[in-house]
Amino acid sequence: MSKQYEVSPEANMVKESQESPFDLIELWLVLWRRKWVVIGVSLLLTVSIVLYSLTLPNIYKSSALLSPQKSQESGSLASLAGQFGGLASMAGINLGGASDDTALHIETIKSKDFIYRFIEKYNVKVPLMAAKSWDKSTGKLIIDESLYSVSNKEWVKEVKKGESPEPSMFDTYVAFLKNLEVEQNKSTGFVTLAFKHIDPNISKLWVEYLIQDINALMRQQEIAERNRSILFLEKQLKKTNVAEMKNVFYSLIEEQTKMMLLAEVQADYVFKMIESPIIEERKVSPNRAVIAIVSAVFSGLFMCLITLFVHFVVSYKRKYS
């Protein structure tokens, strides 16, 4: 009498896996049979991406190399710091030696307060937010008339009811900051300030304005601080009748006046230009050659994965239907 043996589900799974192993040759044959579909669709995707990249405007970057100017106090002021540092601190007067506030100045350039003033002062909104392209032959910036009407000098962008067609100050700030680069080389201490725009003339001009404005702002703040210190010292001078204290106040007022005068005559107060910005002739983006290569590789991989996925889905349905 013959015996009957029951086959466990695990054994069936092992048997099935042995009958249909994951074979690289099979995968290759699947791709080879559909090679013209893979190649054709990949080529179509690559050409579409390259054609789209041709519609993107060229971006130009102008940059300047800057040397941070350390605030060098005079020798006499430094000597007074040791003797009257406590009194000066009460007055809010800085009697320290050389100081390096480069990080503070860089963050000031990136701050909303500074960039908001810059946007309003130089009418940045239109050339930044409504620029369409740059005509190299004429050197003129072409404005997108669907966003801003040049003839009527008004924003005409279609927006939802209740919204303003004009970009907000914050949106302009975000767009401006996206194209602004301010970095310090930790080894040399030099600062690179750069700006990217489709118009190389604007890139150069705005870099110059940024350097000019940060120097002017920091110089004005320094002069205002020295003025406040001098006013405070003069008030204290009037209150005292002690001859020695009067001499101290006279010395402090003299040094504060010297530092204020130095700030007034120093144009490059926080940043001295080592290398001036120029009108760049070479674009920094888009790199259409790289776009073409990358799109071709990824389109090919994408189509291979899609082909294999479809093959396994169809095979699975045939097997278990």
Shape: elongated
Strand order of the largest sheet: 6-7-1-8
Task: Give the overall average pLDDT.
Answer: 83
Major sheet attributes? 4 strands, antiparallel
Beta-strand share of residues: 5-15%
How many domains? 2
Q: pLDDT under 50 segments (min length 5)? A: 9-21, 72-78
The helix/strand class is alpha+beta
Q: What this model shows, in words?
A:
With 321 residues, the protein is of the alpha+beta class. The chain folds into two domains: 60-275, no CATH class; 287-321. The protein has eleven helices and eight strands. It has a four-stranded antiparallel sheet with strand order 6-7-1-8. Strands 2-3 form a two-stranded antiparallel ribbon. α6 (112-121) packs across α8 (169-179).
Give descriptors for this structure.
321 residues, alpha+beta, 2 domains, four-stranded antiparallel sheet, two-stranded antiparallel sheet, 11 helices, 8 strands, 59% helix
In short, what is this structure?
The protein is α+β, with helices and mostly antiparallel strands and 321 residues long. Helix content is 59%, strand content 12%. It has 11 helices and 8 strands.
How does the SSE layout of this entry go?
Layout: H1 9-19, H2 24-33, H3 35-55, E1 60-68, H4 75-91, H5 102-110, H6 112-121, H7 125-129, E2 131-135, E3 140-143, E4 148-149, E5 154-155, H8 169-179, E6 180-184, E7 191-197, H9 200-239, H10 243-265, E8 271-275, H11 288-320
Antiparallel strand pairs: 1-7, 1-8, 2-3, 4-5, 6-7
Helix pairs in contact: 3-11, 4-10, 6-8, 9-10
